[in-house]
Specification:
Length: 151
């Protein structure tokens, strides 16, 4: 699946950023996203790719789930969100918080209850580094330009 995050031309008004996913079968799903949410989506990408999650947000989108449905109330969605997708959210949140703030100690460590038991120090460091790289690439884009990732 190809993930395209386009920087809106007037991000705070009528031309916000967009997240578009083009699945391997050619089908497409997309949504508008607002500036702070780009970090969340990039964090999902890093966590899911690094830890091999297949039934979290991007994995589900690649399987055919449509992005806008994730925001709907449970009763209006055409699917149940799997446990794996729910378990990824705290990891994504911790990674985001580490990126946003300068904590004296890192929030994610090998003993973090939110992490799967098989995680390594190298994976944690790789997630931090990859997120920093992607955020820098995003910040370097001009309005109207796109960051493209392969999932």
């Amino acid at each position: 699946m190809t993930i395209r995050i386009k920087k809106g031309k007037n991000r705070y008004k009528h031309k916000p950023d967009t997240l578009t996913c083009i699945r391997d079968d050619g089908s497409v799903t997309w949504t508008h996203i607002y500036p702070a949410f780009v970090l969340h989506d990039l964090s999902h990408y890093v966590v899911e790719k690094t830890l091999g999650f297949k039934d979290a947000f991007l994995g589900l989108v690649s399987k055919g789930y449509n992005i806008p449905e994730f925001s709907l109330p449970k009763s209006n969605r055409s699917f149940e969100i799997p446990d794996e997708a729910i378990s990824v959210e705290p990891i994504v949140a911790l990674l985001q918080m580490e990126h946003w703030d300068s904590f004296p100690e890192k929030l994610i460590n090998i003993e973090s209850a939110e992490l799967p038991p098989h995680i390594t120090f190298e994976q944690i460091d790789n997630m931090r580094k990859k997120l920093n790289e992607l955020v820098q690439q995003w910040e370097d884009l001009l309005p109207g330009e796109t960051l493209e990732l392969e999932y």
